[in-house]
Design a protein that fits this description.
The chain has 551 residues and is α+β, with helices and mostly antiparallel strands. The chain has helices spanning 3-27, 33-43, 50-60, 68-73, 99-111, 113-143, 150-159, 162-176, 186-202, 209-226, 234-256, 373-376, 408-418, and strands at residues 96-98, 206-208, 260-265, 271-274, 278-285, 292-299, 302-311, 315-319, 328-337, 348-350, 354-358, 437-438, 441-451, 455-462, 470-475, 478-485, 491-496, 503-509, 518-526, 529-537, 541-549. The chain has three domains: 3-256, no CATH class; 260-418, Immunoglobulins (Immunoglobulin-like, Sandwich), CATH 2.60.40.10; 437-549, Immunoglobulin-like, CATH 2.60.40. The protein contains 13 helices and 21 strands. The longest helix has 31 residues, at 113-143. It is flat.
């Protein structure tokens, strides 16, 4: 059947299938994802039938890659849900879009609402087909009782909604053609023009995805108020309601299957003594026993020793600490899940600070210390929270001490595992010293600024000649711009500053271009005020600026 012939059955199909989706989502109670997936297929086998699959592929055709502007149409699907529902649509690392692209989209939503509605339907069909394809391929193995990996069960559950989204998008595509375009009168046009002017003034070249969604939501509310544009296309309104509900269920399910990790020992007040062997204990959620976790020892947020990779059996014993480590109370252990099932979420946990003491190796430990840590560890305190932060991997300088560093390839692995983590405040605030070196390079501060807001905007571009400079920009040791090829065009980013400490922003050069050193112009925007700064970097030193947030 074609799209038109099948439309009469669509409402009934959507009602039944969506009820099934809600019911299945409610039944997910920390079960095996493979068994849950099989139950989903058994409860509603029609989407996973070979004949149904072939009919859909013949009707829609092959999957094609979405262009940059096309992906932005998907922002119109569920702007009320936030950026998390966009995971899997935008490539990893893409967290903003050009402002002009957003304005073009809003302009089309105003002046060409029917064409915009149809275009959104076509693009939504492609994106939904991609999800459905992933789920269908796994469903074939689930139905045949073939061996299915734990990760594949989760992939199926996270993509099975593609079938429902296709039906919804086809309905929108079919019904949009029945709506007449509505013009915009002059009074209404002025309000919309004022909103466009405000957006251009508010943002430079780029707008973060989260902000773009908020602006789309506010703009659609304006269209509803003035009864114009996309707000008059009833099929679009019905489409967004259904898609938003589906995305809400999909998000809840995604969160349900996310892996979790909590280190219960060492905890606050724990003491490790060198040269005695150490142990680590942890609990986990949605992590099979065969999964592996890698642990690192941190000193002031710096990785100084790899503690080992262990199966997820909740206990690692016999860990030998580097005997050259200095005593102190500023140590933590970080655990990171390896090869996560959800590529957008890696289970990780940093313990609270604990103490490391040293004893003469020729002196036997006190009798009360010759007890397994498992038996003596204190219960985890209720205020301990997960610290999802980026680990600053630098080479520490310790006078009169020689610290064995993690091999370079392991440092790269840690950085890769946590590069998508969101930096949060640490429960026990420790004021760090001003950074003087990073990755073997000296850091020189050229300016100190004070800003009013915790969240500021920066624009950066090549200063002088465009000569192929490749740079990274670090904020408090975390790369906010990674290996970016500088051009004359401004690139905008949003920074989330830590108001409890000075924030160091520095330039890191990956090459020297044709005309060394690497030089970047940075515009720091704090509300209505801005300041331009020029930073230089070569392969031995970095220039930085220190930013303080007013109390």
């Amino acid at each position: 059947m074609g799209i038109t012939q099948r439309s009469s059955l669509l409402c009934l199909i959507l009602g039944v299938l969506f009820l099934s989706a809600r019911t299945n989502a409610a039944l997910l109670i920390r079960e095996d994802p493979i068994e849950v997936s099989k139950k989903v297929i058994a409860d509603d086998p029609s989407p996973w039938n070979e004949a149904e699959y072939r009919a859909i592929r013949e009707e829609i055709g092959p999957i094609r890659a979405l262009g940059e502007m096309e992906k932005n149409y998907l922002l119109l699907q569920s702007p009320w849900l936030g950026t998390e529902y966009l995971q899997g649509v935008y490539e990893e690392g893409v967290n903003s879009i050009p402002v002009e692209q957003l304005l073009d989209l809003l302009n089309l939503a105003t002046n060409s609402p029917v064409q915009t509605s149809r275009k959104l339907a076509e693009i939504s069909l492609q994106q939904a087909l991609l999800e459905y394809e992933k789920a269908f391929a796994i469903a074939a193995n689930l139905k045949s009782d073939s061996s299915v990996a734990y990760e594949d069960g989760i992939v199926f559950l996270q993509n099975r909604f593609g079938y429902l989204k296709m039906q919804t998008a086809k309905k929108l595509l079919n019904e949009s053609g029945e709506v007449k375009n509505v013009g915009v009168d002059k009074k209404i046009s002025k309000k919309i023009t004022d909103r466009f002017r405000s957006l251009r003034k508010k943002y430079a070249d780029e707008i973060p995805l989260s902000n773009a969604l908020e602006e789309i939501k506010a703009f659609y509310t304006l269209l509803e108020e003035v009864v114009s544009g996309l707000a008059l296309v009833k099929p679009y309104t019905e489409f967004t309601q259904t898609i938003t509900e589906l995305n809400e269920v999909q998000l809840r399910e995604r969160k349900h299957w996310r892996s979790g990790l909590e280190i219960t020992y060492p905890s606050k007040g724990s003491v490790w003594t060198i040269p005695d062997p150490a142990s680590i204990q942890w609990t986990s959620e949605n992590l099979p026993a065969e999964k592996t976790i890698k642990f690192y020892l941190l000193r002031n947020n710096t990785v100084i020793q790899e503690l080992g990779t262990f199966k997820n059996n909740s206990l690692a014993e016999g860990i030998r600490l580097n005997t050259t480590l200095p005593a102190g109370n500023n140590y933590r252990v970080m655990g990171i899940e390896l090869f996560p099932a959800d590529k957008f979420h890696t289970a990780k946990f940093a313990s609270p600070y604990f103490t490391i003491e040293k004893r003469d190796p020729n002196t036997p430990p006190p009798a009360d210390e010759i007890i397994l840590a498992k038996e003596t560890q204190p219960e985890p305190e209720p205020e301990v929270t997960v610290v999802e932060e980026v680990v600053e991997v630098i080479e520490p300088v310790v006078e009169d001490e020689v610290i064995s560093m993690v091999p370079e390839e392991e440092i790269e692995e840690v950085t890769e595992e946590v590069e998508t983590a969101v930096e949060e405040e640490i429960t026990e605030a420790v004021m760090p010293e001003k950074r003087t070196d990073f990755d073997g390079r000296t850091i020189t501060y050229v300016k100190e600024l004070e800003v009013n807001s915790r969240i500021i905007q920066i624009n950066l571009w090549d200063h002088g000649r465009q000569d192929g400079d490749i740079v990274s920009i670090y904020l408090n040791g975390y790369p906010i711009v990674s290996k970016y090829n500088l051009t004359y065009q401004k690139k905008g980013f949003e920074l989330n500053l830590d108001p409890s400490q000075p924030n160091d922003l520095f330039l890191y050069a990956h090459n020297l271009g044709r005309f060394p050193p690497n030089t970047v112009s940075i515009e720091i925007i704090d509300g209505e005020t801005s300041e331009n700064i020029i930073l230089n970097s070569d392969l031995s030193q970095c220039e930085a600026v220190l930013i303080n947030v007013k109390e």
